[in-house]
Amino acid sequence: MPCEVKHRFVVLYGSQKGQAQSIAEGIAEEAEEHGLAADVCCLNQNEKYNLETEHAPVVFVASTTGDGEPPDNALKFVRRIKKKTLSSDHYKHLCFALLALGDTNYANFCNCGKTIERRLQELGAKQFYPTGYADDGVGLEVVIDPWLTGLWSAIKEALSKMASDGSAFLKENIDSAKETPDIQLNSLSITDENNCEPVGSSLSTDSKHASPPSITDLKPAASGLPSLSTSISTPKTCNDTVPNVKLAPSLTCSLPPLSTSSLNVPALPPPYLDVSFQKVDAMEQTAGPVNRETLHEVPISKAVELSRDDSVKTALLLELDISAYPTTIYQPGDSFDVFCPNRVEEVDEMLCRLNLQDQKTHHVHVALKKDTKKKGAQLPSHIPQNVSLLFLLTWCLEIRSVPKKALLRALVEHTADGAHRRRLQELCSKQGAADYNLYVRDPSLGVLELLTAFPSCSPPLSLLIEHLPRLQPRPYSAASSCVKHPGKLRFVFNMVEFPACSGRPVGRRGLCTGWLFDLISPRLVVPAKADSSSVPSLPKIHVSLRPNCSFRPPSHPSVPFIMVGPGTGVAPFISFLQQREEERKENPEAAFGETWLFFGCRHRDKDYLFREDLEDFVSSGTLTHLKVCFSRDHREDVEAVAPATQPRYVQHNLLLNSQNVTDVLFRQNGSIYVCGDAKNMAKDVNETLVEIIKAELHVDQLEAMKKLAELREEKRYLQDIWG
């Protein structure tokens, strides 16, 4: 029931790539439909909010980045509330709710949200609604949808209590509202996520956020219904031109029950940008990213293929000449960003898709709509003024980004074909969540691929600018020491391949790895000639250093450490060992702790990266123990005879050396470093370490997990992993 006076609450967000911001803005926009008014702003906008005097309910939406770090725009806030000088009742007047975004494939899941929650509680703040921990590893909407559904009754209950009590006092033990889903406080999951009933069509409430809850009831019915519904009166085959033949579901079509279901779709995100074009006389250069003045443009001095031609993955080593920037000093464990453009062919295809080929050299002017209903609308910071459309699509927008549900919902309004409209509605609906994951999210389907699959969809450029994120640089770990290779910076990467799928008829390469390969392939050095002189005339690329203050070798050389790095995960450990080798030469009398490296790959003779280097490290005493395994070189008869002595993966080798592992970590106070794949290897290594601790220290599962957590807190269990 609408209220005569709209009660106020505050929404604060910390967002690295825009997901948390989109959710926060969606909450603020939906507030009006619930008779509420929301002030929304970023955590770094100190001038727009003041928690020290705020008595309205506050909703935090916070993502986590890197190794459990806060987003850049939340870092100062987190540091501020962590000050030890703050008293335990500093925020006793404050009541809050929190939605944390994270990914269980990475360490320190939702760490930023957990840090804010814990610290606010320590400072006396009270929660009026249980925290939601959304996991991008399984789909954020699994938690976000029911959390947002229950948020509104919780806010109203909190406001009601504050009004009746005449203060901001809230009960310590939170009782969720009757309509609130069963969300356990400080729980990583929601136990009754399927109990959110569709909202009846008689209600006019709607919502806009990245992963929306149940909103509008759309029913497939006869023709003549409003534009949001398509005419589906009976279950259809995926291809009506082939009578009596039912095809499998795909990106562009569904089968019952989804194809005949009522749909709960998100509200239409309000458009907020006007885009105009200005014809210019001179042709603009498109070579270089937006902020190239602040970056280092460096030549590639060497390119070597580390794997054999017949290996499953192509591994390449690139060496950059950074001698023109003598003040650029990197440390072992540091990484750096490579700034790459969108592919020329894909930019041309996008121009054709938008029917803007003739305007590609025109300057693009972006302005806020005067009548926009979007709260807190701002011009995207990554869109510069007075650049050509070609530059915009080449260097500014991530045209390969996986479309969020809000974008799918917006595309519906620009789709002519009824079947296409219905399918886009399904993909952004609550009922179509499984299809969205299967056909869009999991295969990393890009916006351009989606538009190709739905040819009747013709969105304006303004819509893409509103929804597409910034073209992000790609990070790589340094695989060299500047002490051993002054003026040089090396890195290693596997060629990323995205296989063909529904919506992607032909596989494609990763954006940055494919671009780098195209740059260096004419003069690529094959493994047999890896010691040849530097390759001349290779192009330049733009990079910037990303110091990693935690993923570093122990500061004292006498501390032992273990390195786990299969495949290209060995890259930072080459820098570790090169640095250690130079330190041993400079201080031959010093006491150095033992070093362990657990390396693995598919085949000894195809993709054993840095084999000669590693064997040389062992010969020189720089590397004390080298443990290698080859997952595809095993014969079934050998495994049947002695599987325990034929380790396939790095975690198996860790188990075989469990006594030494625990000795290094718990008796010698050493460290362990893990680098590589997050989804499989890092999880398996973590579980193996728990098993090792249980067996060697004779403790139960919980105690073993606690000991491993203590190593993390002491910065002696460190990860540099990726998805």
UniProtKB/TrEMBL annotation:
It comes from the Eukaryota. Its cofactor is FAD; FMN. Residues 9-152 form the Flavodoxin-like domain. One of its GO terms (cellular component) is cytosol. Its EC number is 1.16.1.8. It is an enzyme of class 1 (oxidoreductase). Residues 293-554 form the FAD-binding FR-type domain. GO terms for molecular function: [methionine synthase] reductase (NADPH) activity; flavin adenine dinucleotide binding; FMN binding; methyltransferase activity. Residues 196-233 are annotated as: Disordered. GO terms for biological process: homocysteine metabolic process; methionine biosynthetic process; methylation. Pfam families: FAD_binding_1 (PF00667), Flavodoxin_1 (PF00258), NAD_binding_1 (PF00175). Keywords: Amino-acid biosynthesis, FAD, Flavoprotein, FMN, Methionine biosynthesis, Methyltransferase, NADP, Oxidoreductase, S-adenosyl-L-methionine, Transferase. This is Methionine synthase reductase. It comes from Iconisemion striatum. The gene is MTRR.
